Amino acid sequence: MRTSGKKTRAREWLRHAFAVGEPGVVDISDSDRELIDRICSEIVRRRLATPALLVLEMHRPFNYVSAQALHFFEPVVSIVTDADGYRAFARFLEQRGSIDHLVARVSALEAALAAPKGPEAHD
Q1: Where do the structural domains in the chain lie, given as residue ranges?
Q2: Interatomic CA distance for residues 46 and 60, integer angstroms
Q3: How far is CA 25 from CA 12, 41, 65, 114, 123, in A?
Q4: Ramachandran angles phi, psi of 117, nearest 5°
Q5: Alpha-carbon distance 58 to 69, whole Å?
Q6: Closest residue by Cα to residue 111 from 19, 58, 49, 60
Q7: DSSP assignment letter at 23
Q8: What pLDDT was estimated at residue 26?
């Protein structure tokens, strides 16, 4: 009888061992929003939206691991780039909905770039 209780507890633990919560609303400060907009705008300006979206979608399950990798490489990367922005971006990626936010932002900026502008666009 006692073995049955252990099996039940083990089964319950295993059922939720790798559970991941649903992506929620991402908490973004104004400075983080500015940083993310700058990154996404640069991606769209260089016409790299499609490859960026592919990479983001492929690595969606690994966004937290990717953020940890960014933290790991921070000492080396901070030599050639803005360390505070890099750190803020790594913290942003730790959030569950961060990839969704990046995908939406890149898509919106790309759509705005592709949209016709003014009356001369209709000719």
Answers
A1: 28-115
A2: 22
A3: 28, 22, 20, 27, 41
A4: -115, 120
A5: 16
A6: 49
A7: P
A8: 81
